[in-house]
Design brief:
Blueprint: H1 9-29, H2 34-38, H3 41-45, E1 60-61, E2 64-71, E3 74-82, H4 93-105, H5 116-125, E4 152-158, E5 161-168, E6 176-180, H6 183-189, H7 193-214, H8 217-261, H9 267-298, H10 304-343, H11 353-385, H12 388-391, H13 395-411, H14 413-427, E7 436-439, E8 442-449, E9 453-458, E10 463-467, E11 474-476, E12 482-490, H15 497-512, E13 521-534, E14 537-546, H16 551-569
Antiparallel strand pairs: 1-2, 2-3, 4-5, 5-6, 7-8, 7-11, 8-9, 9-10, 12-14, 13-14
Helix pairs in contact: 1-10, 8-9, 9-10, 10-11, 15-16
Length: 577
């Protein structure tokens, strides 16, 4: 017999969920900042120089669209374009920022536009040339090289055109245009285009000289040497952690076998300590591997911010996972609280309370799994959205991703069908954990109701996993009540039918009033009389209606009593010779 949910268990569990809710509330009320704030849109797209309260890079500030301009990966300027306007006319803020960054890179990191084969072919073709030639594959074929201090940024002004910033490099007759200061830029920064141009001129000149300085040969060699030493040290530490992890992994099975043969007093503590050390070493190896990759990235100028992001990203991911675990725990607690109140409803009829307690168990398991699945999906989306490269994808890339998801939905449409069928089975109360059901001719007890499949244990103790979409025709033997039919086959020629029916009726009444079996019976057994007349005999039927799941034992006991009574009365049973 199923038992209702104990009311005394609610306060102790409720205290734990209240504690979890308090932790989540405390985490929510912590002022923005620190690591979490640093991984928001500002860190992903950058927005240095924007006053507090302004949107982040790539976002909108009222009628303006904003984007960052970076030098060596460090946000330097914030440019703006109108949000409202004719579609297709003029670049967006992000497109404008990319163009400006390309102009700035020409001054400290000229793009390699030639393959090694093209470079070699250029040298072979120009070997007989007269005088000094500037080859297109040369790093300084645009004449933008030189010492860092030789670079100057100037403001070009003209009548009726916005101020322009340009780079003056010795050896070039004309300056290299970098960007134009628009009215939107000036409106964003609260000044005039001319004053903003002067402010940006000094800032760009300082950043560009610093960037050119980082690509000098002596600094590159020094940075490469330092990165090599650091990589060797980190690699040695990583190898040491791997060696300790292997020893720990081999030590655990040995200690387990020794504990099975001769249990020791402190073996459990040692095993848990080794398991904890294995987990710590695993986490340490992951941190060292990330640090090794970050050090190698730092060897090349302009990769410092990516290296720092690589070092901090695991911590940020861990914080996001922790937050999602707390939210999932809170959601599971809310599900448990609501279902507990639903199961303890005093308005439910007495005969329906065991069934409600049974449904409570099934719904609790299924809904808590759905909470876990929802938390995993939201957490994965939150983590993926924080990746800088993915957060800056264009609309076309997002549409392509949607098309891929649609194709995956078609591929896994069977799983979706199982998922929906499982939800329908739970909501529609077709079966629950503990029910004796027939699914497609398979008879067994429901062990688990999952979101995709149902586990059934048959009479021979085999566990069969049935997809939820395959549970289209279900026979539930234990919903609210159970029943069984006891049949007897009497000899149609030799049996005295009247005396046989009287004996069966007397035994039926004795069984219905037996104190040992009466509590199991929802109704007294019903003598249905002759069910069928067959060549081998007359089939007499007695119907039993019992509590949930008790029909089998009652059926066997009543059949035993009836057979003994008929044998004592000398009434022969039917059957083929």
């Amino acid at each position: 017999m199923m038992r209702a949910v104990p009311a005394a268990a609610i306060p102790s569990r409720a205290r734990r969920w209240v504690l979890l809710f308090g932790l989540v509330l405390l985490l929510t009320l912590v002022p923005g900042g620190g690591v979490i704030a640093a991984r928001g849109p500002a860190a992903a797209g950058g927005n240095a120089g924007v006053p507090p309260g302004k949107p982040q890079a790539g976002g909108d500030a009222g009628s303006l669209q904003l984007a960052n301009v970076r030098v060596l990966g460090v946000p330097t300027l914030v440019v703006a374009t109108p949000t409202l306007g004719d579609k297709g006319k003029g670049p967006t803020a992000l497109e404008r920022a990319k163009v400006i960054e390309g102009n700035l890179e020409l001054l400290y990191q000229a793009p390699n536009r030639c393959t090694p084969g093209e470079r070699l072919g250029e040298l072979v073709a120009a070997r007989d040339g007269e005088g000094k030639r500037v080859l297109p594959c040369d790093f300084d074929h645009l004449g933008l090289g030189g010492r860092p201090d030789d670079l100057q940024v100037v403001v070009l002004k003209g009548n009726g055109i916005p101020p322009q910033l340009a780079a003056v490099v010795p050896g070039r007759e004309r300056p290299l245009p970098l960007l134009s200061v628009t009215e939107e830029d000036a409106r964003l920064h609260g000044t005039t285009p001319e004053r903003l141009a002067e402010r940006w001129r000094s800032l760009l000149e300082q950043r560009l000289r610093y960037a050119r300085l980082q690509f000098e040969d002596d600094r590159m060699v020094r940075r490469l040497r330092l990165a090599t030493i650091s990589a060797v040290v980190l690699g040695a530490l990583l190898a040491l952690c791997r060696w300790l992890w292997n020893r720990t992994r081999k030590r655990i099975p040995e200690l387990q076998r020794r504990h099975e043969q001769q249990p020791g007093r402190f073996d459990d503590r040692v095993l848990h300590g080794l398991q904890g050390r294995s987990r710590v070493l695993t986490a340490l190896m992951a941190v060292l591997a990330a640090a090794l990759v970050a050090v190698l990235l730092m060897a090349w100028p302009g990769q410092f911010t990516r290296a720092v992001d690589l070092l901090t990203e695991p911590a940020v991911v861990a914080i996001k996972v922790l937050v999602m675990l707390l939210l999932v725990a809170l959601l599971r607690g809310i599900v448990w609280l609501l279902l507990s109140q639903w199961a303890l409803n005093v308005d439910v009829p007495v005969e329906a309370r065991p069934r409600r307690a049974q449904r409570y168990r099934s719904l609790l398991v299924a809904l808590q799994r759905l909470a876990n699945l929802l938390g995993a999906a939201v957490g994965a989306a939150w983590i993926v959205a924080g990746i800088p490269l993915l957060s800056e994808l264009s609309a076309n890339a997002l549409l392509a991703g949607g098309a891929v998801l649609g194709a995956l939905a078609l591929v896994f449409q069977g799983m979706l069908r199982d998922f929906i069928a499982g939800l329908v089975a739970l909501v529609d109360d077709r079966y629950a954990i503990g029910d004796l059901v027939e699914i497609g001719g398979l008879l067994g007890e429901v062990l688990d109701v999952g979101v995709l499949s149902t586990e059934v244990r048959t009479v021979d103790q085999k566990v069969v996993v049935v997809p939820n979409s395959g549970c289209d025709r279900i026979v539930n033997h234990t919903k609210l009540r159970s029943g069984a039919e006891v049949t007897l086959l009497l000899d149609r020629e030799r049996a005295d039918l009247a005396r046989a029916m009287a004996a069966i009726e007397q035994e039926r009444q004795a069984f219905a009033t037996d104190p040992a079996w009466q509590p199991l019976l929802l109704e007294p057994p019903v003598l249905r009389g002759i069910k069928a007349a067959r060549p081998e005999g007359l089939e007499v039927s007695v119907l039993l209606i019992t509590e949930v799941g008790r029909q089998g034992e009652a059926q066997r006991e009543l059949l035993r009593r009836l057979l003994l009574r008929l044998q004592a009365e000398g009434i022969p049973l039917g059957g083929r010779e």
